[in-house]
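User: For documentation purposes, I need each entry recorded in a consistent format: the amino acid sequence on its own, followed directly by the corresponding structure tokens. There are two entries in this batch. Please keep commentary to a minimum and don't merge the entries.

Assistant: Recorded as requested. Entry 1:
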Amino acid sequence: MELTQVSSQIGRFTPLVWVMLLGNFFVRASYYMVWPFLAVILYSKYGLSATEVGVLLTGSAVFAVLLGFYTGNLADRFGRFALLYTAAIVGVLAFTALALADQLWTFCLAVFFACMPRTLWDAPSKALLSDELSNGQDRELALHLLYFLVNVGAAIGPLFGLWAGLNGEQFSFIYTAFAYLGLLLSLILKQSSAVKNEDNAQQAQVPSFKSWLAILRQDTRFLWVLLATFLVYLVYGQGDSSLVQYLTRAEVPELAVLVSSLIITNSLVIVIFQFPLLHVMRNWSIQSRLYCGGGILVLSQVMMALNPVDGFWGWIGAIAVLSFSEAIMFSNINIHIDRMAPSHLKASYFGAAGLCSLGFAFAPLVGGVLLDWGNGAVLFIAMAIASVKALYLYKLAESASE
């Protein structure tokens, strides 16, 4: 019966929904196929220091996040497709420039623009999924699939890049440009199947950016959710940066094997368990799902704080627990925002939610300061406390809606 229900739901996905889902997969896979080698190129070809590379990448990422906050409102005011086309075109141009640039300033400028397409694409694509699927359960399944495909793309992209022998070749950025070109063509072909009423009357009700800021300031419930999600992302971000730095400083034996094992464990747990967990929690409220995921997140940080630095299987176990939490929380955060957003402000709310990604941007800085000031135990205890604080803020948001 469950399989029949899921099959029925998938059967209601429009062609445009599939463009959003599969487009995100191919773009993310091609992005990670070459992006991990960017630091190699900046060092080996252009001679940038580690600090200079960090400033360039972090500055570009923070600008892209802030841009997404503004462009979400633009997508509500002027239509989803205007922003989606812009994202695809900027992607084609930026990654082509990365492939062909032969001077440092042009390459750095291309890096700056290459961070923009994902941000420009994110809020309008999620809002369009919501527009296309009137049934709430269908929207939930689509958002779960979106997160699943993005994870699969991020996992196999670097592996495919290594298999293809790219290994930091600058011209390999052209593959991502082609992915964005394919996405642009798919949008052009499938836009005609979209709901034709990108309702002028409804768009007329969409406030200007200044008015939207005033609305946002008054939506206390949503602001609590944003702050909670920022903390959640700050905690998850430690697994990508500070944990590796901690293990490296401690001179853990077979570090490369351990780090590779942690990455594989994270990907496998999410890919294998996301939909079984969705099935188990299908009748839970969204708040209960977030509380469960947040509680597991706290447990993972306590496990890391208590694990001996050379405890190989302890790290594997802690990352597996962290990944269970991630599989629960990430897609459900999107569902929570979708439910909170008024129908005429979907992209604005998703764009504002993109600010939470600053948690990932600041994770290396916060983690580095805590490691310098204390040690690994201090770092992970602090993150456990941050996780508990996030749970409290989600509870405040729930109370504000009552």
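Entry 2:
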Amino acid sequence: MIDLVVRSRRTVTPEGERAAAVAVQGEKITALYDYAAPLDAAEDIDLRDLALLPGLVDTHVHVNEPGRTHWEGFDSATRAAAAGGVTTILDMPLNSLPPTVNVEAFEAKLRAAAGQCHVDVGFWGGAVPGNVKDLAPLRERGVYGFKCFMSPSGVDEFPPLGLAELRLAMEEIAGFGGVMVVHAEDPALLGEPGGPAYREFLESRPGASERSAVAQVVRLARETGARAHILHVSSADCLDVLEAAQAEGLAVTAETCPHYLTLAAEQVPEGETAYKCCPPIRSESNRDLLWDGLARGVLSCVVSDHSPSTAELKVPDFAAAWGGIASLQLGLPAIWTEASKRGYGLRDVVRWMSSNPASMAEISGKGGIKAGNDADLVAFDPVAGNLVDASLLHHKNPVTPYHGRVLRGAVLTTWLRGRPVDGAPHGRFLLGEQ
């Protein structure tokens, strides 16, 4: 007898959208059958015309525990993830105390997260000045790769790498086949925001800064042979540099985020610092070019960069407020709202938000509804209206630029490895090559 069958006339598989019955035994998908196939199952769920998606894979989440758990913790973050159809997250190494820059700090994070996770959780390590010797041990312990900044990170305990230090770290990472994920803004081209207005903040972080930093990373990838992934691309000025690198055959990939694809500088109300992030939300015309880069595959992943803080840090002054957007629970409906308007389908959204992030980070068994993968599944109503009330989100702090917006699409049920996420944490740690 099969443990679980989930049927949907809109099952989104790697081959496309089809009517199918997904059979689950234990924690794994064992087979896909015709939608109406008679199957002997302990539980048989028919979603009819609701969509069945693979669980999303969000490789860019700042959980902040331990140390800044009042900003966000593993319990609240992973509850939010599951409610948004995300079944796998990779936690970023900074904003927690201590940052994950050596094995001892990684062990502290694992202890803090134990027993709290409602989805499966993996981890990035950090590359900071002076810790090249710690990179291989972190990789051996199970981090998926290494995050670095080229400009100030916003927290003193996670300083940026200069170009010489970045080269050393990439040479080390290339030696064991790892990946460097880079916050790419050139500090030489960043200005100081002169006042509280959004326009001043935006002008202080020009697209040219992103482009220059991406070009530097591309050059180092060419010279060191290291894999590099550019985080949260906000400026279309980067696209031709990335496209040329990919055409050259360099192992350089890039992501963008829901807020860059769904929001625009022209819409940012003065004083509403829930919209502040680094790099910043740019113009409507820039947003259109990012969608084009996504459609062409220059940008391959859409992930949240969920970077929350307490409401007190979001003071109504763009120069002084904490820079980070909380959207972990809202990424799927936000992207589906805009993507469907632009003629894209659920298969596209799944590629950008599930299969490509899993492939980029080399997370096995995730990212697609196919035999052998974990039974991470999402029942999704693609036509439901969704009025965002920040106070009802699972995020620890009710601060989001999506508050009051009507988004399209609603997550109805999330299964993690064949079990519904129902309040009892049964997420696991995902550890990379060991």
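Summary note for entry 2:
The chain has a mean pLDDT of 97.
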